[in-house]
Specification:
The protein is of the alpha/beta class. The protein has helices at residues 17-20, 30-44, 87-93, 157-167; strands spanning 4-7, 50-53, 74-78, 99-101, 104-106, 109-111, 126-129, 142-144, 155-156. The model has no long low-confidence stretch (mean pLDDT 93).
Length: 168
């Protein structure tokens, strides 16, 4: 059976992310940080599973995108504010992601990096997003899948749906 997972804000190669979120990313080096993310990811995601990355997968040099090849699954990307958006850079991203979006929808949810305005809920039952890291929005229609909110491990869609249903 193919499963679908969500994750946001991996921030591979982002040295400062450990300073910004020390309670959730208590690593001594960016290399250790990256390896734990890969280990957690591959511990739950199988090669044929689908993974939606909701932005900010890497930080810095676009060549760092090669690390994505070490993560299991068929990967889709919703661009984040730290993802490169120049055409030449996006071509490199296309080597590692089956699809790249600015925004997408999935089973009645809007998928974004930055949370959408509440006025969009007339169209969608919820917003699966990243960007806010360990912060939360006081509205159960927002589902934060930033790494800090999901224990540095991709979250299965079924779990997202159960959480949403329990609060709506």
């Amino acid at each position: 059976m193919i499963n679908t997972f969500f994750a946001g804000d991996s921030h591979c190669y982002h040295k400062k992310i450990m300073e910004f979120e020390p309670d959730f990313r208590p690593f001594s080096s960016v290399e250790e940080h990256n390896e734990i993310l890969i280990e957690n990811h591959n511990g739950i995601v199988k090669p044929n599973d689908i993974v939606w990355h909701l932005g900010d997968v890497i930080f810095g040099c676009v060549e760092n995108i090669e690390i994505i090849s070490r993560f299991n699954g068929k990967k889709k990307l919703v661009l984040g504010n730290h993802d490169k958006s120049k055409v030449d850079d996006l071509r490199k991203y296309m080597d590692y992601f089956t699809h790249i979006y600015g925004v997408a929808s999935y089973k009645g949810f809007v998928l974004t990096h930055i949370p959408v305005h509440p006025s969009q809920f007339c169209r969608y039952k919820g917003n699966i997003h990243g960007h806010v890291h360990s912060n939360t929005l006081d509205d159960p229609r927002y589902i934060n899948v930033s790494m800090e909110a999901i224990n540095l491990t991709p979250i299965p869609y079924d779990e997202i749906l159960n959480r949403w249903a329990a609060n709506n």
